Description:
Elements: H1 2-28, H2 30-39, H3 50-65, H4 81-117, H5 125-131, H6 133-144, H7 146-157, H8 178-209
Helix pairs in contact: 1-4, 1-8, 2-3, 3-4, 5-8, 6-7, 6-8
Amino acid sequence: MLWRAGRLLNWLGLFLWLLSLTIILTFASTWLYRFDIHYFEILKGVPMTTATLMKNYHQMLSYVTLPWVHNLHMTDFESSFAGTLHFTDVRHLVFIDYAVFLVTSVTSWLFLRFLHRKRQLWQLIRPFQFMMGIPFVVLFLLAMNFQTFFTDFHKLLFRNSDWLFDPNTDPIILVLPEGFFMHCFILAIILLEVFLLIGVLVGKRALKKSPGKIGF
Length: 216
């Protein structure tokens, strides 16, 4: 029983490692926002250049993702007290993600090393195939009604309503269309599916070298 519980924790840690890495890479994908500036024609309602808007986006992102940036400052966008609190809440969640990534990097490396030494990397196949279904569930919910999904997502993560920005006091929301966040979720799903697929392929390659029963 303890062995099964320990093995389950190993798989959970491995999934959390990949998920936390996916979140980090999604935040780092600033090219997506540059693409959406043109895709959603964001500059039609904002009197500034793409370079200026990207500068402000980088300033916002730096506060949210970099520990050494202690104050939110966007050159061309003011922030209300509630708006700043929301960005601070997001910042805290990102730092939690960093912590999860660091801890699970160690546990996942030890677990994968154990499987490799025992010639049991083929055991990655079924758990990773199961995990591959989770992002598709999220994608289905997203496709059904993204606005409802997005609202429920915020209600789940935040205990206040600071995320409901007023364009008059937090004009940054005017250049962060809902569609951009949808693209962020889609990118994260794609990245996670790619990582899990790689795990399945590694497992199948190992299975050819060391035939055995596939299982947890």
